[in-house]
Amino acid sequence: MELAKSNLTMSSREIAELCDKEHKQVMRDIRAMLEQLKQGTDLYLGQYESNNRKYDEYNLPKRESLILVSGYSITMRAKIIDRWQELEAKGQSSLPNFNNPAEAARAWALQYEQNKQLEYERNEAVHTKAWISDKKTATAMNTASQMVKKVDKLEDELGRGKNYKAVKAIPWLLDYFINTHTMYSVVGRKLSLLTNQMGYSHQEVEHEQYGTVKAYHIDVIEAFKHDLDDDLNHLGKFRK
């Protein structure tokens, strides 16, 4: 019986540093990768704290991190591979000393608990699959899923969805800026500029007062937020 290996991961911030890229670019690349892998963009998502604020980051296992950098340059890939070798070497050096009875006992106890947890999760998965196999339940779940997708699409079309948001629908905007008409216009121009720079496109959504307004992709909005956090004087005329 072998001790389970620790789940080593590499953060998106570390990948950005090793590859000499901006963190927001690496985050964007990871989201695109996870979408193509059909794994969901929330998988491996975590947070880190900086300047008393929390920011999103990804913590990727070895497989996903190597898939990510497969499109990067050879030099960048080499740095990531070298770093993984360091992490794995440290993981191996942390194995318990089985010549020490107390340490060995703790290791076996930990492994036992891990195996019990895996068994529980496996049984839960079996029960869940059996439950979903019921045709009526599966149909109801599929209907609910389709309704959620329709709501998400409608939210996007109204400029307050998960993927696209109009300026006034950005939830944190008034934490940074004074609420003025000019501020919204200036922020809109900044987001339009970032949209072009990042290779994204905006959406035109209906607005009861102006007819239509622009809605921007959440990656662009996140990049703008990072710019604000990195430079406290950015758009300082309108800041709180």
From TrEMBL:
InterPro entries attached to this UniProt entry: Phage_regulatory_Rha
Native organism: Cysteiniphilum litorale
Name the record gives this protein: Uncharacterized protein
A Pfam family this chain is assigned to: Phage_pRha
